[in-house]
């Protein structure tokens, strides 16, 4: 098992890519803290892990609230004694063209996708520094690297978490902490499954592989980067996008 006895927190772990990441981490032997805004979702995912013989706890948290984040980190350490991996997967969208984007749409996405990542990482880094080891992984996107129509706020945050990862890799590397980002492309999630067939076909055609990705593809990237197999990888962005940006 590649993550045997590692303790991992996955924000946005209640659904989609986050849920799949929690399940994969547990399969690889990690003790998983499933963190998300919805109490029912986190408990459901934690129950799935336990039913499969893994170890997990669900914690409802708003990553924009520093007090809640500090409590989540503290509860995780109290439960398992340490913190080895943080996956900053929580994120939202509020799309609109530049001329029509409201201040509220801008602020809400920045608050979750940037401030939330900062809150969780700063709190986790304090624990990891004391241990002399740890891994922080930020969820970026191809949109963060190349931009996208109608997603000024989202693109800004997903570029921002890359800058955070590279900065933290330099700051925290001497303390034994690796920091990387993963940039997914078009991924088949419950949300995309509801899209019209012609839209899905268009998304597939953008990839040289003529396929969409699946949550497992992103989860597997997180597993690799969190494992000791990636011990010499830090400050990088791993694109998992089927070549869509070529």
UniProtKB/TrEMBL annotation:
Role description: Catalyzes the NADPH-dependent reduction of beta-ketoacyl-ACP substrates to beta-hydroxyacyl-ACP products, the first reductive step in the elongation cycle of fatty acid biosynthesis.
Enzyme class: oxidoreductase
Active site residues per record: 154 (proton acceptor)
Binding site for NADP(+): 12-15, 62-63, 89, 154-158, 187
Catalytic activity: a (3R)-hydroxyacyl-[ACP] + NADP(+) = a 3-oxoacyl-[ACP] + NADPH + H(+)
Database matches in InterPro entries: 3oxo_ACP_reduc, KR_dom, NAD(P)-bd_dom_sf, Sc_DH/Rdtase_CS, SDR_fam
Chain coiled-coil ranges: none
Name assigned to this protein: 3-oxoacyl-[acyl-carrier-protein] reductase
Segments crossing the lipid bilayer: none
Family: Belongs to the short-chain dehydrogenases/reductases (SDR) family.
Gene Ontology molecular function: 3-oxoacyl-[acyl-carrier-protein] reductase (NADPH) activity; NAD binding
Domain Ketoreductase per the UniProt entry, residue ranges: 6-185
Keyword Lipid metabolism included in the entry's annotation: yes
Organism: Anaerosolibacter carboniphilus
PANTHER family the UniProt entry points to: 3-OXOACYL-[ACYL-CARRIER-PROTEIN] REDUCTASE, SHORT-CHAIN DEHYDROGENASES/REDUCTASES FAMILY MEMBER
Pathway stated in the Swiss-Prot or TrEMBL entry: Lipid metabolism; fatty acid biosynthesis
Keyword terms, alphabetized: Fatty acid biosynthesis, Fatty acid metabolism, Lipid biosynthesis, Lipid metabolism, NADP, Oxidoreductase
GO biological process: fatty acid biosynthetic process
EC number: 1.1.1.100
């Amino acid at each position: 098992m590649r993550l045997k006895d590692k303790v991992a927190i996955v924000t946005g772990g209640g659904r989609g890519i986050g849920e799949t990441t929690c399940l994969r981490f547990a399969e690889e032997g990690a003790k998983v803290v499933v963190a998300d805004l919805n109490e029912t979702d986190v408990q459901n995912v934690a129950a799935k892990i336990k039913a499969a013989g893994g170890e997990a706890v669900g914690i409802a948290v708003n990553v924009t609230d520093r007090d809640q984040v500090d409590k989540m980190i503290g509860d995780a350490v109290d439960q398992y004694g340490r913190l080895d991996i943080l996956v900053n997967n929580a994120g939202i969208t509020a799309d609109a063209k530049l001329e029509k984007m409201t201040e509220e749409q801008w602020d809400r996405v920045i608050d979750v996708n940037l401030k939330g990542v900062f809150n969780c990482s700063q709190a986790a880094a304090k624990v990891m520094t004391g241990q002399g080891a740890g891994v922080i992984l930020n969820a970026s996107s191809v949109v963060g690297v190349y931009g996208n129509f109608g997603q000024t706020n989202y693109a800004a945050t997903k570029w921002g978490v890359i800058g955070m990862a590279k900065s933290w890799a330099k700051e925290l590397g001497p303390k034994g902490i690796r920091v990387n980002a993963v940039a997914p492309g078009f991924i088949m999630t419950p949300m995309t499954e509801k899209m019209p067939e012609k839209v899905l076909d268009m998304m597939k055609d953008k990839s040289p592989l003529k396929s969409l990705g699946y949550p497992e593809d992103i989860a597997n990237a997180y597993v690799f980067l969190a494992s000791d197999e990636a011990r010499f990888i830090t400050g990088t962005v791993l694109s998992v996008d089927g070549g869509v940006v070529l």
